[in-house]
Amino acid sequence: MKNGSVRLLVIGVILGIILWGGFNTAMEVTNTEEFCISCHEMESTVYQELQDTPHYTNRTGVRATCPDCHVPREWIHKIVRKIRASNEVYHKILGTIDTPEKFEAKRMEMAQRVWVSMKSTDSRECRNCHGFESMDFEKQEGRSVNKHEEMEEAGETHDASSKEGRTCIDCHKGIAHALPEGFDPKWNSPGE
Amino acid sequence: MKKSILIMLVTMVALIFAGTAVSGVKSLRLGQPIDEDAKAPAKAKLMVKEGGFARSYGIQPPGIPHKVDKEQINMKVNTCMKCHSEETYKKEKAPQAGKDGSHYVDRNGKKTAKIAARRYFCDQCHAPWVDKAPLVENTFQGAK
């Protein structure tokens, strides 16, 4: 009897390691750019556009990959995003955006979904790399400095719903991918 | 008769050659042999100037006093209008595109609600500046 429970414990531990390890590996594999662009829907559209932007090509050679902006880093938010991504697998099977024409027809809808989600998280993924503490306003253009200083002061409230709670995405839409047809310039210019 | 024409031609050709030799014409290649690749000009950064550049003459399209490499002007969007459109320029403290209304008139003289199609491609007339000396000396004085 005692022998049996020890065996059960050992099996449990080994099984646990395999299952958790496997789960973790799957999470990491699906969190790479190679995985994202293994579908032509991403590879031949948004990935091509990204390559012309400073998030891919720049002076220092530091770059962002898809998950840096589109997958949260914190575990719980990451899991939520991964579960939502099952919808993307579903539509991949359906072929919802499997031609450039279909992609363009849906671009506005998809872009708006990303903008809404970034707004609701106070642009959390942007702030994983970009922080006001590390921004050298001396090196920015005057037109940027005024707004960033204003935002830094207001940012302490961290309330995305308030007027002061404006967040990165409110002004920085279309910085990594082409903007959708019908984009209204007012959307990148919040305020009264 | 024939002879005099020939003499005239020869003198003309000689004069042209002599004239160029005296004035010392330099090509924009700056004397680099034609069978060699021209040397690339030194790199220059786009100028950023608060308040913008002064015009050299009355109807000169104003230069762009900031970086533009992230802007997109294509069939779908014109990101210059994020700040320079009639709806946003006040908020963004940016000059309005064609504030005399010139950019909101189509070729038939009809007013347009959005920027007119023929004014859509900003960088056809408005150019960013680099801080460089002119290739050849230029004594042009801008309108004062």
Overall domain count of chain A: 1
Largest pleated sheet of chain A: none
Instruction: Based on Cα principal axes, name the global outline of chain A.
Output: globular
Number of distinct beta strands of chain A: 0
Helix count of chain A, per DSSP? 11
N→C terminal distance of chain B: 57 Å
The percent of residues in helical segments of chain A reads 55-70%
| Series of secondary-structure elements of chain A, N-terminal to C-terminal | HHHHHHHHHHH
- What oligomeric assembly is this protein in? heterodimer
Could you say what the CATH architecture of the domain at 47-129 in chain B is? Orthogonal Bundle
How big a fraction of the residues of chain B is strand?
A: under 5%
The number of E-state strands of chain B comes to: 0
Q: Provide the CATH top-level class of the domain at 47-129 in chain B.
A: Mainly Alpha
Which descriptor suits the 3D outline of chain B? Answer: elongated
Rounded Rg of chain A: 21 Å
Structural class of chain A: mainly alpha
How would you characterize the overall build of this protein?
The complex is a heterodimer of chains A (192) and B (144). Chain A has 192 residues and is an all-alpha fold. Chain A has helices spanning 2-29, 33-36, 40-43, 46-50, 66-70, 75-84, 86-94, 100-120, 124-127, 142-154, 168-171. Chain A has one domain (31-185). Helices cover 56% and strands 0% of the residues of chain A. Chain A starts with a helix and ends in a 21-residue tail after the last helix. Chain B has three helices and no strands. Chain B has 144 residues and is mostly helical. The chains are: A mainly alpha (192), B mainly alpha (144). The A-B interface holds A 53-54, 141-143, 146, 174-175, 178-183, 185-186, 188-189, 191-192 and B 48, 50, 66-67, 70, 72, 74-79, 81-83, 85, 87-88, 91-94.
